[in-house]
Specification:
The protein has 231 residues and is of the alpha+beta class. Helices cover 28% and strands 26% of the residues. The protein is built from six helices and eight strands. It has an eight-stranded mixed sheet, with helices on both faces. The longest helix is centred in the N-terminal third of the chain and has 19 residues, at 46-64. 35% of the residues are buried.
Length: 231
């Protein structure tokens, strides 16, 4: 059962894996972003949790704010903590020597994060015996156009294919029908270029009844899938 307060996306660490051991990593050469799944102890890093919460909410406020009647938060600090603790969140970090001047270094009342500055994230989970799903994809505006968003998607796909042994990746796209949403149109084109195909329309009201009540007008809840393993 999904949590209808947010789109809950995430994947548990594979059975038998050491939750404290290093997880798969990927380097985005354009901006030297290191994509990794932080250790569960990262959930106690208050600066990291605060920055990831801000990043996701800012990105989704821009992307989906006009779809809803009132402003809403895509996630919360406790939910980010839960994702990190469960090994569900892949994060793109920049170390201090590669941080863009427009991105503020991480600070909190407990001091800076020891992991670096996050500039992107994606959540991954298994939703069926052979199917994975990603969502909550967010990239700091300063680092858009560097290929980081694509690298986060590829990381999620490899996580599901290689580590979880899944054959299909799924994503969800909420598209308003009462006006043309340019961002959603671009996003669908981008997902199509990455190999995703719309397979069906789902009922957003059933999946997320609380959020459905906040919609400003009619929408389509589009489900896309991509084969990770050749059939």
């Amino acid at each position: 059962m999904k949590d209808d307060t947010i789109f809950t996306i995430g994947a548990p660490i594979p059975s038998g894996a050491d939750a404290t051991s290093p997880q798969p990593r990927h380097i985005n050469a354009a901006k030297r972003a290191d994509i990794q799944i932080p250790a569960p102890s990262a959930a106690t890093d208050r600066a990291l949790v605060a920055e990831l919460t801000r990043l996701v909410n800012d990105v989704y406020a821009e992307a989906e704010g006009t779809i809803y009647k009132n402003a809403f938060e895509r996630t919360s600090a406790p939910q980010i903590e839960d994702h990190l603790r469960a090994g569900e969140l892949a994060v793109a970090f920049l170390d201090s020597t590669h941080v863009d001047a427009k991105v503020s270094p991480l600070q909190s009342d407990s001091g800076p994060s020891s992991l670096g500055t996050p500039v992107g994230c994606v959540c991954i989970k298994q939703v069926a015996p052979t199917v994975g799903e990603f969502g909550m994809l967010a990239v700091e505006p300063t680092y858009r156009g560097t290929g980081l968003g694509r690298d986060l998607v590829v990381f999620a796909e490899e996580r599901c294919r290689r580590d979880l042994g899944l054959a299909v990746m799924r994503l969800e796209l909420l598209v308003p029908q009462h006006f043309e949403h340019a961002g959603k149109t671009r996003l669908q084109v981008w997902y199509t270029r990455l190999g995703y195909v719309m397979t069906r329309l789902a009922d957003f009201g059933i999946e997320f009844p609380k959020l459905n009540a906040l919609l400003a007008g009619p929408t389509e809840f589009r489900i896309f899938e991509k084969q990770l393993v050749a059939g």
